[in-house]
């Protein structure tokens, strides 16, 4: 059947009765999802909807990212690098989406934002427990970050559990040790509640992998995937910092920090420092 008058006719078998069947909206809990945008500015500022949805979509992607990263940790623990790599590939696409999404918020001018910023009170992305959870899973542990969730026991438990679990990087390092590489015992048995700190012997392990890539192909590939993950994470942080700079300049943050300066310091944090250091070591001078 052709389209007439630029109108597509419904096919006779198209389902239209959802009294007793699961529909699109019920499956996706759209009623809950689309009833969760509550601007607080009075009178309501047009641009607050953008601000809310930008954060909510970010939190949804962070939720999926955490789900995938937890699967990566499990797969590494089970020596299943192939499946770990599959999940990492998905995480990388989520990260790209999250980073590209900054361009939507960048349409908010400093004047527009200033018109409803006061309504946000002391709330801040600093209180995003899912963001902190991703940092913890990747190995950037910081127990001090949990204090801000004193009033949210569920978030506090999630973060405390993750703090006490070996991170994705801990599991990767343990896998390298099981594969027979010369990983120092203190790295395998380290206090996993602390942030990972630079280990020179680990650089030498990576050197062995990179200089014999053909022999250790899956590990070689995994190392490069981890470098991508870290770089993508830093790109998100950079776009956040630049968006903040153009939106509030050098004002202090609503969460109480110095603002842009505080966010710039996050760019100096690293997840997998040895994987960057090995680059200085490989190949000819
Ligand atoms: C105009 C938009 C935004 C501005 C002006 C802004 C500003 C800031 C500032 C100043 C901080 C430092 C903490 C503080 O004192 O408040 C911060 C932290 C943070 N923001 Fe935003 N932000 C914006 C949008 C977003 C969005 C869309 C997200 C997405 C979830 C986000 C997530 C975060 C996170 C996770 C932190 C903690 C970063 C860290 O600990 O290094 N922000 N933000
Ligand atoms: N910290 C921001 C406020 C802000 O951006 C924000 C406020 C409430 C919920 C999430 C936010 N996003 C990131 O920090 C500011 O200082 O303007």
TrEMBL record:
GO terms for biological process: L-tryptophan catabolic process to acetyl-CoA; L-tryptophan catabolic process to kynurenine. GO terms for molecular function: heme binding; L-tryptophan 2,3-dioxygenase activity; metal ion binding. It catalyses: L-tryptophan + O2 = N-formyl-L-kynurenine. Heme binds at residue 240. Pathway: Amino-acid degradation; L-tryptophan degradation via kynurenine pathway; L-kynurenine from L-tryptophan: step 1/2. InterPro entries: Trp/Indoleamine_2_3_dOase-like, Trp_2-3-dOase_bac, Trp_2_3_dOase. Substrate binds at residues 51-55, 113, 117, 254. Gene3D superfamilies: 1.20.58.480. Binds 1 heme group per subunit. Its cofactor is heme. Its EC number is 1.13.11.11. Keywords: Dioxygenase, Heme, Iron, Metal-binding, Oxidoreductase, Tryptophan catabolism. Heme-dependent dioxygenase that catalyzes the oxidative cleavage of the L-tryptophan (L-Trp) pyrrole ring and converts L-tryptophan to N-formyl-L-kynurenine. Catalyzes the oxidative cleavage of the indole moiety. Homotetramer. Belongs to the tryptophan 2,3-dioxygenase family. HAMAP family: T23O. This is Tryptophan 2,3-dioxygenase.
């Amino acid at each position: 059947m052709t389209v007439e008058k630029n109108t597509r006719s419904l096919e006779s078998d198209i389902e239209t009765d959802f009294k007793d069947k699961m529909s699109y909206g019920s499956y996706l809990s759209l009623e809950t999802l689309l009833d969760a945008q509550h601007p607080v500015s009075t009178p309501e500022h047009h641009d607050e909807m953008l601000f809310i949805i930008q954060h909510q979509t970010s939190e949804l992607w962070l939720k999926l990212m955490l789900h995938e990263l937890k699967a990566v940790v499990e797969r590494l623990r089970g020596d299943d690098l192939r499946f770990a790599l599959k999940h990492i590939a998905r995480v990388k696409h989520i990260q790209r989406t999250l980073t590209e999404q900054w361009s939507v918020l960048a349409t908010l001018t400093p004047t527009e934002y200033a018109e409803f910023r006061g309504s946000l009170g002391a709330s801040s992305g600093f209180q995003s427990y899912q963001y902190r959870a991703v940092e913890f899973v990747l190995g950037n542990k910081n127990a001090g970050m949990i204090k801000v969730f004193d009033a949210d026991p569920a978030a506090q438990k999630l973060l405390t559990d993750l703090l006490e679990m070996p991170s994705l990087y801990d599991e990767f390092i343990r896998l390298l040790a099981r594969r027979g590489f010369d990983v120092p015992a203190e790295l395998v048995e380290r206090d996993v509640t602390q942030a990972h700190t630079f280990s020179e012997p680990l650089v030498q392990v990576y050197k062995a992998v990179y200089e014999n890539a053909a022999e250790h192909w899956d590990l070689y590939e995994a190392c490069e995937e981890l470098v991508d993950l870290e770089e993508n994470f830093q790109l998100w942080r950079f776009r956040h910092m630049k968006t903040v700079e153009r939106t509030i300049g050098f004002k202090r943050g609503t969460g109480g920090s110095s603002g842009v300066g505080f966010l710039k310091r996050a760019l100096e944090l690293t997840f997998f420092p040895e994987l960057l250091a090995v680059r200085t070591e490989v190949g000819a001078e």
